[in-house]
Every structure is written in C-alpha cells, then in structure tokens.
Request: fold
Amino acid sequence: MKKILSKTDRGDIVYMDALLVFFVSILIISFLIGVVPVFMQKQKMDYVTREVLKEAEIRGNTSTDVLNYYDMLIEQVGLEPKSISFDGTDYIPSTKNVQINDTIVLTIKSDFSFFSGWVGNGIDVELVSAMTGRSGVYYK
Reply:
C-alpha cells in the first residue's frame, strides 16, 4: 500500500535533504582547506629540490655556493625546511666535488602541521623531497 504524503510532509523531506547537502558541503570545504596547504608545501619543496640539484649538477659539487643558492631559494619561496642533505652522493675522496656522470642525491625534509587550530595542535607530518642527478663537470 502506497502512502500519500501531505504537503507539509513533502516540505520536511526537502528541508532535510537541503540540510544534509549543506553539512556535506561544509565537511568537504573544511577538508580541502585543511589538506590543500600540504600539497602546496610539497610542490614548493619539489621546486627548491629540483633547482638546487640543477645547480649542483652544473657546478659539479655541493659546496657553499650551492648551499647559498638553497638559502636564497627557500627565502624566496617562503619555506622553512628542517634539513637538507646530500647523503648518497658519489664524492671524489676528501672533497665536495663530484666527478662527471657520478650521482648527486639531494634530500630536503620539512615538518608540516595541517588542521592546526581545528584538531588541537593539528596533525604533524614530515614531507620529504628527494631527487637524484648526475654531475656535469670533469675533474682531472
């Protein structure tokens, strides 16, 4: 047997549907506001890593000139990474020079807290940007 809804019952259903759509929309928007900054931070880190690695490849070393370029880039982009390392790089013994076609490995790490202000201190996550390149300088 089919139940016939009165006009007031149909209005209640529409009201509940609109309320549900509103709450789901607010939930999605708040999630995006909390998560999108993480992806933007990761994109900035990848940009800095790519540019510093390119500089190290051109110079054929990981000297203070490369680190000064790194400092300039993070200031320009507005990052505050916690570490930079060239661990895994194939150095010429007792120097910071890398022979032509040898591997240069660059890793930049940064902490990021998202949903801060909503969930206590937020959710802390460590972002890592690692890239590998080859030296372009021949040392005799």
